[in-house]
Predict the structure.
Amino acid sequence: PAYALDCLRAAQAGGAAWITPCDTNGATLPARCAAVIRDVRAALPGAALGIHTHNDAECAVANSLAAVDEGARMVQGTINGYGERCGNANLVSIIPSLTLKRAYRTVPADRLAELTALSVFVAETANLQPDAWAPYVGHNAFAHKGGMHQQGVNADVRAYEHIDPATVGNERRV
């Protein structure tokens, strides 16, 4: 940690616009990521902080959100989380989480409704199948089986859907 902070101090002294710690091996858990950002913020008061996470332990999105909670204001990530090894932080999950659940201004509201189409476009451009189970934008993200689940959706949709699917350009399916 001391060496990492020395590197970040050198970057700040050299004029870096953003001080952006990176979870290089992708194995940090969210509580530790939050603690790192707190330590960096304390060591470099006033620095513009960012975060860059890899997804080797399936924590890149959670780590990015934890870092924002601790003061990071720039999140480096990719559409659909594509990247080396197991991928990077998935902006398709981070953007609506920050916008709809934390009230951060990320993208204009009218553009948020284009998120599903963007995710599909990037997948198809990369010659990959869109992930049907992707949070927010997957074909199955707001799919419900019939019977009791459908009755529950009819009674109180909030019990089964955390947002209105149309907000991110998706739709409910039964």
